[in-house]
Amino acid sequence: MEVYSEILEFDTKGEITIVDLTSMFEDLVSKSKIKNGVLSANVIGSTGALTTIEYETRVLTDFKQILEKLVPKGAGYKHDLIDSNAHSHLRASLIGPSLSLSIHNSRLQLGTWQQAVFICLDVRSRHRRVAVTIIGQ
Amino acid sequence: MEVYSEILEFDTKGEITIVDLTSMFEDLVSKSKIKNGVLSANVIGSTGALTTIEYETRVLTDFKQILEKLVPKGAGYKHDLIDSNAHSHLRASLIGPSLSLSIHNSRLQLGTWQQAVFICLDVRSRHRRVAVTIIGQ
Amino acid sequence: MEVYSEILEFDTKGEITIVDLTSMFEDLVSKSKIKNGVLSANVIGSTGALTTIEYETRVLTDFKQILEKLVPKGAGYKHDLIDSNAHSHLRASLIGPSLSLSIHNSRLQLGTWQQAVFICLDVRSRHRRVAVTIIGQ
């Protein structure tokens, strides 16, 4: 049984950047040499989120628009009095910061049209970090 | 320390089928012989989601209705131009594809009125797969 | 490789209590003596949820208000006919019951302004339990 740890780092352009992490995750699975186990990932920071989505331009646009509809920017939030990114925090907490994905026979168990993504919800460019731990054998 | 891997497979009737996975998960815990550890599950595919809910008819109906209210079907989504299931993708990404549940003393740590569920959000019948990995001792 | 299991227990005041679990999680990481691995936590019960948020008064207030906007209390839900907490169930299932966080070099990988929280969404005071399992070495 092994544990493989790494921090993924990348830059985002702010509101709303959706980064496809799938090939980065697959590289880590390969480097870990773990054949069967779990990849656990979580955002470090409170204005980013992790989920899966079909990484297709139209769906990504729809996703940005539904977030704006559900949690509109600048809708009189109290946190906006100290920093103008209240909506970023709310969206991040609703989508959630963590993802846990199975690895079977050295392969991350995702569908063909399903990608693991980091969603940058903050209002400005950020250097982003995602903690990844792979456990298995 | 052991790793137990399995793919759960079942058919869904489309929009919106909520499948109680609890007893399937409990069977896998039992087969794994793991007494203390974690069960990690994730949907394979981008129009399904995992969460927990009280598996009671009225709450399930309420859940379907709140999804339709929050992310209405056919609300002018761009992805609908290529496939009429944009809302399915959006709902799935918001709820999330993965679940990680503790196993203590050979028991999945869920409440009496709390069931682990797969939510099929797609518009048609589908053959569905959920990857499950149990790690522990 | 080790597994460390514990149930966190605490009381909540009902609608909506947001409990900062970060220091409790850090204590468990410390007690487990696991340096590299994963902390997996899940709510036991169907009217609570786990996520991360900046534990700052204004954001917490904004979060309570956005939940009321998205899933209003008493909006004609069917489950309210048997128990007046349908909205609690719906909010809990949307946010999600589980969280998995990396531990690298004995430290939980969270940002400075990011706390792991339990959100009590039920309408009354409750005794709450969160199952935690730490796996690693």
TrEMBL record, chains A, B, C:
Family assignment from sequence similarity: Belongs to the UPF0047 family.
Highest taxon listed in the record's lineage: Archaea
Protein name according to UniProt: Secondary thiamine-phosphate synthase enzyme YjbQ
Gene3D superfamilies on file: YjbQ-like (2.60.120.460)
InterPro entries: UPF0047_YjbQ-like (IPR001602), YjbQ-like_sf (IPR035917)
PANTHER family linked: UNCHARACTERIZED PROTEIN YJBQ-RELATED (PTHR30615), UPF0047 PROTEIN C4A8.02C (PTHR30615:SF8)
Pfam families in UniProt: YjbQ
